[in-house]
Amino acid sequence: MKQTDIDHLRHSCAHLLAAAVLELFPKAKNAIGPAIENGFYQDFDFGDTKISEDDLPEIEGKMHQLLKNWDTFEINEVPVNQAKKDFAKNPYKLELVNEFAKEGIKITETQQGKFLDLCKGGHVGSPKEEVKHFKLLSVAGAYWRGNEKNKMLTRIYGTCFPSQKELDQYLENLEQAKLRDHRRLGKELDLFVFSDLVGSGLPMFTPRGTILRNELLNFSEQLQLESGYEKVFIPHITKTELYKKSGHWDKFGSELFLVKSQETDEQFVLKPMNCPHHTQIYASRKRSYKELPIRYMETTVQYRDEKPGELLGLSRVRAITIDDSHVFCTPEQIEGEFSIIINMLRKLYSSLNMTFRARLSFRDDSNKFLGDKKHWEDAQKTLEKVAKNQNLDYVIVEGEAAFYGPKIDILVMDSLGRQWQCATEQLDFVQPARFGLTYTDADGIEKTPFMVHKALLGSIERFLSVYIEHTAGNFPLWLAPTQVSIIPISEKHNSYAQKVEKQLKANQVRALVDLRNEKMQSKIRDAQRYKVPLMIILGDKEVQSETVTVRTRSGENKFNLKFEKFLKDLTQKITTKA
RNA sequence: GCCGGUAUAGCUUAGUGGUAAAGCACUUCAUUGGUAAUGAAGAGACCGUGAGUUCGAUCCUCACUGCCGGCUCCA
Q1: pTM here?
Q2: Which DSSP state fits A448?
């Protein structure tokens, strides 16, 4: 089935939903009901009546009942006056009718039984036969036309498929996605926590979660060090003047956390980004073209005050750790610097078993973009050249650029086929000028350097939310918080097990011996629950022959491996991130 | 911020206008085992916070806070 046909099916179902609701709630007024990515929704003004998800089964029942008499979808063109009369009691439809009349758009209606709706068409031929396989999913608030100045309507989400099988499959996928929800796994695998005393959007990482974080961040730092980046360090607060000069003060507005000094009159802010600080390291002395490119990197936390309703697990937080960097370079070096970054991205994401696409975010003609237009055009050409030469799978989107320059956003694909923006690589010719950064070129003239902002993982919190769901918590060996769980079969084997643990730890393997007074089966179960990649089972045979029996988390066994050989293979796998 | 939902032990949940129950986790004892839960006992909760209604509130009402589903998709 083509996507347009599925959209027609879902849009038809939205009509059916509207009809059912109006039958059950005569005072309700329906607004719009389009097909969306995985289903449809229909907005209603219920007046004073409150409805909740408990009402959905009844509405579904009514839908099935009405559907029996829905033979066709007829679309009739009507004069403006007729439409105004028909929808006199529905301010939302009326607003649309008036708009269409103004713009000279033909007005069409569709009627099913006593249910009359304003509609531009796009339905199935025989609703009675085709719209059978639907399910209402949730109730939510939504502003009329998505504008928070408008009235809040009640939105009912649902989905509809050509067959029951596809519907069931979709509902099953929703369940699966819930099971691998990073908030749930974060708790189950003991990775991160929140505290009401600390505040919302401020995750704290447990020892296990911190290992995961640090392994990822160390990998990112390692790639950068190999590519000629140098570590720097900056404090997390600054006087507001820094951002007034950079242009961020107006841009960020209420997202900035303010910090007031009690000793002086000075007003500070928690840094919402790191570039202005880094420019001040560059600005600390005169620079020669011979020094460029200068590449500062720092994994550091920045703070942004999101609207409370927008915080979500690790995906939207208020303390954001970025594997950030800023390269100061000449115009001729831009292309090379971007290529270096693309190479790092390749290494990083292929090690994580993820693919990515690029979105070249360019400017449009609006006036929110600062700086010289010629600069922009040159820069955008350079970025596209890099994307082509690097064989990136890319699209160009106009209007998505940062205010200071165009960027390459990296969209990572996860195992459920979803796309997430993680990394971003940005060119900036505004801030160096604003901060008066210069270098003396070969011809003795002082020039303004370009600045390249980059993050490989982006926000580690956000990346972890994606990666936890991507892997469902089955982290590869090199990332697993516990890499090896050592399970002695009985207490007779404890001392050998402890010896094995000691040797593994001496080789930087994250091994943990389970000496609890539990049966082996129970210990295996717990190791499985924490998704530990390898379990070592030790009994009489292993003790006697100085071997280990290895069970993987997928349930495969290798019996009586020589310990030395096992250790060698293991450390090899870990260091190569295999 | 706005609409709706929700808040009971560390976790997952049950329950009632007369201060609460279960499983897992935890502690102790017994048990020492070959690939996803050994048995028994014990301890653990001002039922999110504040106010109101009531003789009496974990339960009803209101406010606050946290969390959950949403707030681009245009008749």
Answers
A1: 0.91
A2: P
